[in-house]
Fold this protein.
Amino acid sequence: MWVAQFTDTMIIVLMIAAIITVFIGDHRDTAVIAGVVLLNAGLGFSQARRAERAMDSLRTLAAPTVNVIRGSTPMVVAQRELVVGDVVVLDVGTVVPADCRLVDAPNLRVNEAMLTGESIPVEKRAAIGVLDALPDRRPISDRNDKVFMGTAVTSGRAVAIVEAIAMDTELGGIAQSIDAQDAPATPLQQRLAVLGRRIAYGAIGVCGVVFVVGVMAGEAPKRMLLAAVSLAVAAIPESLPAVVTISLALGAQRMAAHHAIIRNLPAVETLGSVTVIATDKTGTLTQGRMVVTRAWTPNGTLWNVAGNGYAPEGNITSRSGASTSRDHQTPVDDDALVALARASALCNDAALQAPRGDQLDWEAIGDPTEGALLAFAAKAGCDISGIANTYPRLGEVPFDSTRKAMTTVHDEGAGVVFAVTKGAVEVVVPASSPAHASVIEIADAWAADGMRVLVLSGSRHESLAAAWDDHEGARTIYGLVALSDPAREGVEAAIDAAHRAGIRTVMITGDHPMTALSIARSLGVGVGGSTGSGSDDGRMITGPALAAEGGAHLADHVEQIDVYARATSEQKLDIVEAWQATGAVVAMTGDGVNDAPALRRADIGIAMGRNGTEVAKEAADMVLADDNFVTIVAAVEEGRRIYDNIRRFVQYGLTGGTAEVWVMIVAPFLGLPLALLPAQILFINLLTHGLPGVALGVEAAEPDAMARPPRAADESIFGRGLWQRTLVGGMFMAAVSLGVAEWAYRSGRPWQTMLFSVLVLLQLGTALAVRSETASTFTLGVASNRFLVWSVVAMIGAQGAAVYVPGLQDLFATTALSLGDVAVVLIASTATFWFVEIDKLVGRRRAGRLSTRGGAAAVQP
């Protein structure tokens, strides 16, 4: 990392300059150039280390977790805490955390492509007997009783015993044979690296021209070579790479503090260009803490279910007001409710965890919906801890987004096999069922109230084979449950903020269309930030309708659709591609294994940190630690802030560099001797591009950061007038500096020291002025960036030392200034600050006039 600080093109030019000063015998400038190169390398190294620590902390936050069973207690631990002998539970979408021997593996299939290259999932089975501890010499493709670290569960579930962890795994053995590589530079870093090379090459070209012209005009070659070296040094913003790196890394760290964990650094800069957020509903727009609030049984009874969260405590009362109030674990006498509760507990892979330690509430380990069903079953008097022993599970067909149903098969005793199914109403209840009409009517009514509705059914068979042959055939309907999932606090305001920032929000959910529309209305999802007006049906499409109408319909109408209900994970990819075809920059959320292709295809893939599968997290650019939509909008604002801060430094650094070049070129035409010595120029760059430059990288977001449209993804860093402001600002700064120098030279004052000081202070004043591209510096205040203010104060002190401290006077060839000269320097040094402030004032007034005209035009008939 230290050596890398000397490989940048701009630093190489400085080292060449040092070598040239050695050959021409200017040892003072050699020492200064070498010292500045080392100081700059130290700054770059320290910033790179700081960035590396920031990214390491992000990797720790993004570390995967594992469901384990220790001492018969299910719990969630970090993958790095696994030990050999742990019992792990693997579900669909899990990335296997270690090499494990399978104990139970119903319908388990695992994608082992990363180890074997075979993309077709491999069927797995539980190990037979006890395997010895010797290394397994069988090929990986033959070890179907084991699963390996890094592979992904595509279907089924499993219980397995950890046999090897970390570098002792098959994947670890491969990793040891591969040299570690640094992360590739982000697109912005690559563009700025190109910019730096162009600046360096341009500086060398100009230097050559200045040297040749000077020698032809009769100047001494040694003197002109010194001038050319000075000019090269002046043009190069050597701290640019360090500022960009630390801005990106610290920005990612700030996002992590707001629960947005960046896995792919380019996502930081891409966030500022997002125009569409395609989001899941459950757990992202809503709290994801499901609670069963209503139930219906085929005997015609409607039930109200009380209680909060996942606590298995609360009363169940009939809607008719009959005395059917039940306390937790009190046996019930309504057979239909008992059957519904039992089915809810059996067709279930979740577990409830009682409060302990810092955990004050009951928690669901596993799927939140299944956790809510367990709590409901307990409220109805079902012994959820013992039901697995009473009705042992013989097999299962896991839930998937295509079937929208899950089935488990149990031994009921006396030779009877019992199959239980839960899922979407339109899937589980066939149109031929006698209960179809009443079930659909109730489900639609509840869905219109914004509730998620599930139906539970079952069938009995004389053998396991018969159960598998007809496990989802003729069923007995046990009832409906309605789950409430309130909207998250702040989501409505976040959606509105996104709309004002030019970002469209669309909802993709597997829920009932009426449920989806109800939530969309309440949160303001869609065009204009409100779905409360216009034709809701025309702005929603269901997954089956989308499949029937084909991709052409989606491509033609994607900009008119706000809500996708009963959508599959596979359709998310179509939605992403349809939006991207319109030129949109798409952020897509997902949590399932089938969401991975869409997450990879999206410009920003966003996985759920709490309830997302490891496969989804691996495919994503960003992980939401809190699964909250509000966090996405906050991350977008942070992305805009980072990009704006990099623009600020580019404007600041190149304005100063441009001014120094103009001073060196124009000064001889004014009759001035060599305007600035290499040592002075290096000191100027060290003071101005060091701490103040880094401080600009942590400036707060622009006041209007979320009140303007997203920037174009291919926008140049110099877009929106930045290059004009940089060029004109540099010329103005040079004109002021040369004006002071010319006056001082003609009046016999220490003109070079005054020029030296004015250039430093003008650039420091510019640093204060460019904190915002639009807002006045006076409205920003000091508190929002004390680091910058103190950096400027410290650099002013350092410049004063260079002018008045004897040893430094010799090093930088300066002369102490009188109070009168200091007054002239200080007054002149405010010029660019006022120049930038006036430019921003003019820009604000122009924007106000355009806004007024636009408003007037909007109300004209």
